[in-house]
Every structure is written in structure tokens, then in C-alpha cells.
Amino acid sequence: MTRRDQILDTAATLFAQRGFHGVSMHDIGSACGISGPAIYKHFASKDDVLNQSLVGISERLLAEGQKRAATNADPSVALEALIDWHIEFALADPALITIQVSEWTNLGVEGRTAVRRLQLAYIDIWVDTVRQLRGDLDAAEARAVVQATFGLLNSTPHSARISETAMRTRSTKMARAALLA
């Protein structure tokens, strides 16, 4: 892991625990074992740390979603791969899921625009896959179903009170049911 990645991971955890405004550059630096000012070698500001965290999350979700949809020609298999990916992400990176939801308002206009563009592209992958399986849904209805399912899956950091294996199994069943109902 690079120092930059360490700073992003640490900042995400702190932002998830205390909120963006409850964390200083000094706090992030201390948690990384460096001085707060040393962070400025990697980031212009705390706003830049948040921006790069949220853009990075969205880029990662989109890239893996594109890969999983493209490598599975059968829409049923593609949907399972997308569900598995999103659950894997939610369980492995709860701080990132948390700040993606809670710190959106602290992004500048440029960051919000970039994140929203990436998120919509990720959603579109799911919508296209769901519509291949659910011919009864128009694009708007499929988008509503997908976004409601994301709400379910993105609540994992707040609701995972059972083992990871049990949560993965339960979340997979619920997502599949919600998307295909």
C-alpha cells in the first residue's frame, strides 16, 4: 500500500467515525504516523482528500461493474456477478460506503459532478442487466429497483450484526429478490 492509499483509507475511516468536519489534517496524519503537514505532499487540502476518496470509490465500483458485466454474456450470471461485487465491496469497505452516503454534501461542485457521473454509469450497468431479465420494466422503473437495492446493500455497514458469511448470504438473497421480484 502506498502512503497516498494509506492516507485515503485512514481518512475514510475517520470521516466515517467522526464526520468530515470532525476530522483535521493533524488527526489524519497522526493516525497514519506522519505529521499533518506531510499529507500536503499528497493532497492539496482536506477537501481534496475527501474528493479523491469519493471519486476513487466511484471509479472502482464502475470499473469492476463494467468488468463483471462484460465478462458474463448471460444476464443472469452478470447480475449475480454484480450483486457479489457490490456486497463484497460493502462488507470489505464499510467506511467507504458510509462516507459515500454521509459526506456527499461536503464535496465541491466539481467533485459532486464527477462522482455523480461515475455513479450514474455504474447504475446504468445494473439497469441494463436487470432490463434484460425483466422485460416488464422500463428504464425508469429498473433504475428505481436498482437504486432501492443499492439502499439495501449500502446499509450493510449499519446493519451487519451477524457473521460476514451470513450477511453475504442474506444480502445476496435479498438483492436478488428485490431486483427480480
Topology:
Elements: H1 3-18, H2 25-32, H3 46-70, H4 75-92, H5 94-102, H6 109-133, H7 139-154, H8 156-159, H9 164-180
Keywords for this structure?
Tetracycline Repressor, domain 2, 181 residues, 76% helix, mainly alpha, 9 helices, single chain
How would you characterize the overall build of this protein?
This protein is an all-alpha fold and 181 residues long. It has one domain: Tetracycline Repressor, domain 2 (Orthogonal Bundle), CATH 1.10.357.10. Helices cover 76% and strands 0% of the residues. It has 9 helices and no strands. Helix 1 (3-18) crosses helix 3 (46-70) and helix 3 (46-70) runs parallel beside helix 6. The protein is elongated, with a radius of gyration of 17 Å. The N and C termini lie far apart (41 Å). 30% of the residues are buried. The mean pLDDT is 94.
Terminal Cα span: 41 Å
| Form type | elongated
Largest sheet: none
Tell me the β content.
under 5%
Residue runs with pLDDT of under 50 for 5 or more positions: none
Tally of individual domains = 1
Summed up:
The protein is an all-alpha fold.
